[in-house]
Amino acid sequence: MDMTTPVETHTDVLIVGAGISGVGAAHHLQQRSPGKGYQILEAREDLGGTWDLFRYPGIRSDSDMYTFGFNFRPWTDGKVFADGPSIKRYVTDTAREAGILEHIRFQTRVVRADWDSASARWILEAEVGERRERKRFSANFLILCSGYYRYDHGYMPDFPGMADFEGDIIHPQLWDEDYDYTGKKIVVIGSGATAVTLVPAMAGRASHVTMLQRSPTYIASRPSRDAIADWLRKVLPARAAYLLTRVKQIGLGMFFFNLSRRHPDYVKKGVLKEIRNQLGEDFDVETHFSPSYNPWDQRFCLAPDGDFFEVLKSGEASIETDHVERFDATGIQLKSGKHLEADLIIPATGLEMLIGGGIEIVIDGERFNAPAHVTYRGMMLSGVPNCALAFGYTNASWTLKIDLTHERICRLLNHMDAKGYDYCVPEPPADLETRDLLDFSSGYVQRALATLPRQGTKAPWKTYQNYIMDMMTIRFGPIEDGHMRFAKASGQTQPASGELLESAR
Description:
single chain, alpha/beta, five-stranded parallel beta sheet, 14 helices, 30% helix
């Protein structure tokens, strides 16, 4: 970084990313730390994050909107699993109504962040505008809300013979809304949420859609409307109805997750029974829908109103469980010997995880190396001062954890102001045992584990996937918990409370 380049602006808090996490962070700051100035730096030309980027047919949430929505703004649309444009509109309306839009700088891609303990400041370097002019911004506190995957491209295996295929190959992350697939024979490679969304969305308009999967995933049918939520909205104010529905959904989600963990065979039998009821006894459910892993070792895929099963039953779509031998001019040759004809192939093969948006982070002149750091309360990283990371749940709605994270950040900022601290940094004990950050068998997670931070085996370094436990500790737990060191920019430090207790002995 050219240190002679002047700083464009200084603010109390810089937020990187104007998606659902960034807008949520801004709203919480305005409500809980109203004295703090903030700015949002967004690389894209519009807000929305994921919901502005992905444009493939049928794009929707795979979490219910009563828990995926913000805790401070009711979701009143009525759809349980909303489409992408509706979610983007919800985020945009939230930002507009709260006056957040005026705090966003679009087309500002942060490429580097330098922390200096002497001044207790972050200096961010960003590429601004179409000309990518380099500018610098500074702040006392940094919140990374850039998601968990690469925005420029998804994961694309190098299938043999791809260059021989004479049709089109389009990754869902790069889908062009103007692309016309009418009457085409389509093969969707993958079995995750994107594939399960694409198949029913494209069936009917396409000549035929085939989902090609190497192995099955768990798919559950769920109603697209919540009868209880609809009734509550008729008899209660919107906020009260939303809160009650939210509590119900959180409870049901935790119950089903724990049931899956404790009684996986029972849950698996129930899921497969429901699929047989929808597809009929003649359908080979065991081959195509019986995964080798236990429920919730990977995320469940959801089919609103059973739309995925409906198109299979109608014959507009089909499913193949096999491996790709190679692409050829007219489609895909499978290892079983079967050939799939295709005009369009969509590799719904997943994401590439990327923590912090790929920003180069430097702490007092030392380059940040993610695997050498441990998560603190699932929201900060050991040895990284005045910096929070927005990272949601893997077993529940992303926004549930994000809202809690932002509440804790505000408590932390207010506490430092009250005590006269300039910065804080989580410091783990030297004998802390660590483990992988995510206990998830999904391919995109397994491919990235070696590049991710780690987690501890005990609180507050263990990343819990439990909303109630997190809510109690993040919302009500002490800020000075013995694991956070507080300091002043002058270099005079306040020992962590654990150190004070140790010296008192």
